[in-house]
Amino acid sequence: MLILINTLLDTPATCFGDQVLGHWKVEISEFKTPQNDRVDCDANFATKKIKYFELRAPNVAIDEDGFYGTWTMGYIQAIQVRLGGLDYMWYFNYTETPLPEIKQIRVNTYCTQHLPTQAWVHEEGVAAPKHACIRATNVKPLLDNTTNETFKPAPGPVNDYFEVDGRQYKLLPRKLQKKVEYGRKKAPKEQPLTSIYSGDKLPKNFDWRNVDGKSYVPSPFDQKKCGSCYACATSYMMMSRYMVQEKTTEYPMLSVQHLVDCNEYSQGCGGGFGEHVGRFVEDHGILTEKDYGVYEGVDKACHAKDLKNADRYYFTATQPLGGYYGAITDPVEMQWELFRNGPMAISIFVDDVYFRKFDPYGFDNSVILDEENKNRHYFYDEVNHLVLLVGWVTEEITVDGVTKNETFWIMQNSWGTTWGPQKDGTMKIAMGYNSYGIESGPVTTYYRSSGAFRPKAPVNSFYISTIVLGVLTGVFAIAALLFAIMFFQRKKTTAYEQVQ
């Protein structure tokens, strides 16, 4: 078995959460309905509207009118803001300078600027809301230092694939050294299994592949040479949560190829993020393999426009657990989410030493930086692969002559059905140590069982009552007038007859 770490990036941008805080100006183009499940932006679009809002820690967004919403980092490459009925997303701008003398490429990332043509906004809601292109600029950043310089290897003969038994699997970008929240420490070796909710208790063992003899997890996927693990893990989470929510072991085989071909928020076989898959599915729905086609493991032209009457499945609130990147990394909270709502997509770092040996403890290269360190930033973990978390198991182990109980996560990979120490597509990873970064970025989603919807503008109940009362008053007034006329006519006729 040979492991070679990926040297290609989806985007090489590197920004941290504190570097995006401040006052943003966002120029917006004309809103239009997307075509062919895509929105292609022109960097020179005409500005139709300008919005201003402030991003505050940890995830609060406030606009110029005082309305508030939320924001989250898309790992260290992008940002997403939900505010005032609109959902914004953009990648950070960067430049690359080849340095042939050291066989490196210098990357300068500008955390106050969007990446041209890679910035969008759409109306909140599910099912093809109207989209627009944007230009985003942080006109008043909180920090002085908002530019990062990093390096990546120059193109060369180095393979960027993980090879397993003759098969090659492309990994996602390898980034900088891991940085974590200030003062964060490793969790206890034995995690308590009681919740903050009195009376609740987690089982010592739980596996969505065997719940009373039934499996709510599709068989392991094979992503092949395409760097589509983000699409594989997220779509498999969606299929699993569909089964859990609908209380069935039958599921639609969702098309990973649809996500690879059509999702403008990701880079196809070049990589992407689970929450950006969810954004695409919330916009357009995801097609099935039966309609769109089976997975081929290569980038192809999107042909969703030819499938207007095909079945689409919608999911909503696909986001980091807790609502923003780094919000929840507590293993017990992850267990509860997994236990209550189904498997989760999680990020890990695949290395060329421990992961190759299926070492359940791996490594945690977390670094705690003090306040004097100029590189001190908000939460960030280095990851390069997305997998599916399906359960946990508690086992008795002996270390240095001492016997104890240890709990392990069960994660399902996308490298075929025979990968792993048990040749079943899965691997155990120790819980509570953040081994391989497994507890750094869990992603959740929820199936929209009633299908697509678009939010309607709320109507004030006072105005409804006023309108109804006005209509009723008018009806009674007209009825009274008619009655009076009829009565007068009757009285007039009777008097005339009497005179005659």
UniProtKB/TrEMBL annotation:
<dbReference type="InterPro" id="IPR000169">
    <property type="entry name" value="Pept_cys_AS"/>
</dbReference>
<protein>
    <recommendedName>
        <fullName>Dipeptidyl peptidase 1</fullName>
    </recommendedName>
</protein>
<dbReference type="InterPro" id="IPR014882">
    <property type="entry name" value="CathepsinC_exc"/>
</dbReference>
<dbReference type="InterPro" id="IPR038765">
    <property type="entry name" value="Papain-like_cys_pep_sf"/>
</dbReference>
<dbReference type="Pfam" id="PF00112">
    <property type="entry name" value="Peptidase_C1"/>
</dbReference>
<dbReference type="Pfam" id="PF08773">
    <property type="entry name" value="CathepsinC_exc"/>
</dbReference>
<dbReference type="GO" id="GO:0006508">
    <property type="term" value="P:proteolysis"/>
</dbReference>
<feature type="transmembrane region" description="Helical">
    <location>
        <begin position="462"/>
        <end position="488"/>
    </location>
</feature>
<comment type="similarity">
    <text>Belongs to the peptidase C1 family.</text>
</comment>
<dbReference type="InterPro" id="IPR036496">
    <property type="entry name" value="CathepsinC_exc_dom_sf"/>
</dbReference>
<keyword id="KW-0472">Membrane</keyword>
<dbReference type="InterPro" id="IPR000668">
    <property type="entry name" value="Peptidase_C1A_C"/>
</dbReference>
<feature type="domain" description="Peptidase C1A papain C-terminal">
    <location>
        <begin position="202"/>
        <end position="446"/>
    </location>
</feature>
<dbReference type="InterPro" id="IPR013128">
    <property type="entry name" value="Peptidase_C1A"/>
</dbReference>
<comment type="subunit">
    <text>Tetramer of heterotrimers consisting of exclusion domain, heavy- and light chains.</text>
</comment>
<keyword id="KW-0812">Transmembrane</keyword>
<keyword id="KW-1133">Transmembrane helix</keyword>
<comment type="function">
    <text>Thiol protease. Has dipeptidylpeptidase activity. Active against a broad range of dipeptide substrates composed of both polar and hydrophobic amino acids. Proline cannot occupy the P1 position and arginine cannot occupy the P2 position of the substrate. Can act as both an exopeptidase and endopeptidase. Activates serine proteases such as elastase, cathepsin G and granzymes A and B.</text>
</comment>
<dbReference type="GO" id="GO:0008234">
    <property type="term" value="F:cysteine-type peptidase activity"/>
</dbReference>
